[in-house]
Amino acid sequence: MLCQRCKKQQATIHLTEILQNEKRERHLCEDCAREEGVAIKAQVNLQDILSGMLEAHQEAGKEAGLTCPDCGITYAEFRNQGRLGCPHDYEVFAAPLQEVLEKVHGATQHVGKLPHRAGADSYAQRELMQLRRQLQEAIESEHYEEAARLRDLIRDKETAGETR
Amino acid sequence: MKLDDLIVGPSPWLQPGGPQCDIILSTRVRLARNVAGRPFSSRLKPDQREELDAWLQKAILKALAPKDVAWFELEGMPEIDRRCLVERHLISRELAAGDGHRGVAIDPTQRLAVMANEEDHIRLQIYAPGLQLDETWRDADEVDDCIEQQVTYTFSPTLGYLTACPTNVGTGMRASVMLHLPGLVLTKQIEKVFRAVSRMRLAVRGLYGEGTQATGDIYQISNQASLGRSESDILKTLGAVIPQILAYERQARDVLATESPKYLDDRIFRAWGLLTHARTISSEETLTLLSAARLGVNMARLKGVDIGAINELFLLTRPGHIQKMRGAELSETERDVARADYIRKRLGAT
Asked: Between residues B31 and B189, which one has the greater pLDDT?
């Protein structure tokens, strides 16, 4: 897209202005944007970018109520604090996160280092997380026998994962 | 190894001698990892957090025993000590300010640090002087393998290493280079460089990371994207950009020397005059003056001054270190006096 002002250079700055309740989109090249006094932030704060993007999602609204069955975090909570609650959230919030990942990384598929150990499969990870949550609940409700049973079960599963 | 020894001595990564050390202060590679089968740190209940902290301490110390790392628990650590660790870039501001059980393992050379229970369960970093992208990654990769002997990481074949913040997912890697760019600042070219850099999915930050001011003309440039490219590709992108910035900075210094030598020298020698004679000085002003002095030494205009001393002062004049060296909590006014005294002493002035 060419700059709307000089109509020569590529537009790299995209602005949405709201004037008297009317939305107007403008596409400018960097030189024109600077001449018009549009500040280009030199210090890029990832957190700002992320919360900005997440706010855009707020408009959609429908994802806000998504809740992770494992850690209990809602999509709205994640949006506010910018941090996920547990690894399973990547599956629960997969749809809205897709766009976030594309904006931040320009990609959605890992191509880097792989862990050496096989114990990292996600089913076993989820099961462990659920057991830990049950353990916490058992302790809080003072069901100590159940807690002891869960603790041993977690220990067994962890050892099994490590020797696999 | 005691914490006091660690935070009073000079920091190895500020020692001169690293590749391109006239402009590049240091290179850092950090990896974010999480332990499988547990919620991320912010979602841990206090007792779960305590249990994980103790477990990580054991696992990390065992995994890195050959590196002779020592463990420092942050919970209950005096504020000045935490501040010194941040000033040394050994821990993040988040870990220092956080609460609950959390810690850091540091090796005696301070090249390696592993934080536990930060935003992610494990954050390991390798810090080296000058430009050493491949070397720092190689060591970080090795340390990562060692820790993995003890810890099962949470990993997804599609998204890679899963992290608490989606900005770190994938490789979990952030590679950053800390540059001293007074030439580009003085010639007002720095904004241009930033714009070029941000087009390549690289981020520019100040001396102390995200959201901090670029004081002392020190900037950190790091990869923004951690997903969808391999560690070596990320390093390649950074590795391709850095030499261009170095060339621009050297060019800017040449322009200053040929076109405005009086202006340049005035800046350098005024800074030197103040550093060696001031009786009270803020940490902000110190960084500005040290930047000019560093430029003067590296351009061979300010002669007979030890660049090692200048580099060290960037760190040892920070508020935490000034108080640590005095062995007491000081008010801001008292700090400014202590700082001026220390600088004069270190630079051999009276």
From this structure: B31
3-state secondary structure of B173: strand
Phi, psi of B108 (to 5 degrees): -60, -25
- Of A96-105, B14-23, B336-345, give the lowest mean pLDDT range: B14-23
Tell me how many degrees the CA angle B180-B18-B111 measures, rounded to the nearest 5: 95
A162 touches chain B (CB under 8 A): yes
Locate the chain B residue with the closest alpha carbon to A137.
B45
Contact of B172 with B226, CB cutoff 8 Å: yes
DSSP string, A55-82: HHHHHH-TTTT-B-TTT--BHHHHHHHS
Angle between helix B319-326 and helix B79-87 axes, rounded to 10 deg? 130
The two tokens of residue A49 are 């970018």
Give me the residue label for tokens 């809080």. A140
Please give the residue that has the higher pLDDT: either A54 or A82: A82
ipTM: 0.87
Is A151 in CB contact (< 8 Å) with chain B? no
Rounded CA separation A23/A32 (Å): 20
Give the C-alpha separation, B189 to B245, whole Å: 11
For chain B, how many helices (H) and strands (E)?
A: 13, 10
Rounded distance between C-alpha atoms, residue A80 and residue A69, angstroms? 19
Model confidence, pTM: 0.81
Amino acid at B323: Q
E strand or H helix at B112: strand B112-116
Residue A115: CA atoms inside 13 Å, Cβ hemisphere, count? 29
Q: For testing the chain B interface, which of A68, A74, A110 should be mutated: the one with the most B CBs within 10 Å?
A: A110
- Coil, strand, or helix at residue B122? strand
> What CA–CA distance (Å, rounded) separates B104 from B19?
28
